[in-house]
Design brief:
The complex is a heterodimer of chains A (118) and B (106). Chain A is mainly β and 118 residues long. Helix content of chain A is 0%, strand content 51%. Chain A has no helices and 11 strands. In chain A, strands 2, 4, 5, 6, 9, 10 and 11 form a 7-stranded mixed β-sheet that branches. A 4-stranded antiparallel β-sheet of chain A has the order 1-3-8-7, with no helix packed on it. In chain A, a hairpin with a 4-residue loop joins strand 7 and strand 8. Chain A starts with a strand and ends with a strand. Chain B is mostly beta strands and 106 residues long. Chain B has strands at residues 4-7, 10-12, 19-25, 33-38, 45-49, 53-54, 62-67, 70-75, 85-90, 97-98, 102-105. Chain B is globular and about 35 Å long. The N and C termini of chain B lie far apart (34 Å). The chains are: A mainly beta (118), B mainly beta (106). Chain A binds chain B through residues 35, 37, 44-47, 49-50, 59, 61-62, 95, 99, 102-106, 108-111, and chain B through 1, 32, 34, 36, 38, 43-44, 46, 49-50, 55, 85, 87, 89, 91, 94-101.
């Protein structure tokens, strides 16, 4: 069955960077994009972007362009989200999600809490 | 980016009530609209895809409709487990977006 397993919680200081991983199993890794979604405490879902594990191409929401990097390592079926220049506003649970061919999400990682605090 | 709005932002209702949540897109998105339910501490769960298609295993009391820029999620008879937060999400654009959510409370 499809599984997405994310790395553990992180605590970072303002201005630092964080790298979250999402390891996929149970399907052909290069056949589906992986998307990233975050949720600040008590807030709604915010879509961040996607990475294509087959080509390495990625695209992010305009507000994150230049501050977010999404990469892939096909040798270990893992995608990464790196967020740079962290502020307290980046404190959130970060989810990876795999859309179906129909572009809706039924497979999610368990979430990674990133806390940004001095 | 396509902007999504939802109304109401919160809603109080009772078991057995019929409720409707509206989602609007800032531009036409055909029927590329999905609905999710999220409970605290859990990942979102898909309810409706392509505006009106009920995902496997989702109770038939959930229904979706709409196309273009206006969409609705209807719960025909609220059950205790339905008190949750609901999000719409567009997949028309390569840059997906979620609505801000509607919290359904008792």
């Amino acid at each position: 069955q499809v599984q997405l397993v994310q790395s553990g919680a992180e605590m970072k200081k303002p201005g630092a960077s964080v790298k979250v991983s999402c390891k996929a199993s149970g399907y052909t890794f290069t056949a589906f994009y992986i998307h990233w979604v975050r949720q600040a405490p008590g807030q709604g879902l915010e879509w961040l972007g996607w990475v294509n594990p087959n080509s390495g191409d990625s695209k992010s929401k305009q507000k994150f362009q230049g501050r977010v990097t999404m990469t892939t390592d096909t040798s270990i079926n893992t995608v990464y989200l790196e967020v740079h220049s962290l502020t307290s506003d980046d404190t959130a649970v970060y989810f990876c999600a795999r859309p179906t061919s129909g572009s809706y999400y039924i497979h999610w990682g368990q979430g990674t809490l990133v806390t940004v605090s001095s | 980016d396509i902007q999504m709005t939802q109304s109401p932002s919160s809603l109080s209702a009772s078991v057995g009530d019929r409720v409707t949540i509206t989602c609007r897109a800032s531009q036409r998105i055909s029927t590329f609209l999905n609905w999710y339910q999220q409970k605290p501490g859990q990942v979102p769960k898909l309810l409706i895809f392509d505006a009106s298609k009920l995902y496997s295993g989702v109770p038939a009391r959930f229904g979706g409709s709409g196309s273009g820029t206006e969409f609705t999620l209807t719960i025909s008879s609220l059950q205790p487990e339905d008190f949750s937060t609901y999000y719409c999400q567009q997949s028309f654009s390569p840059l997906f977006t979620f609505g801000p959510g509607t919290k359904l409370e008792i």
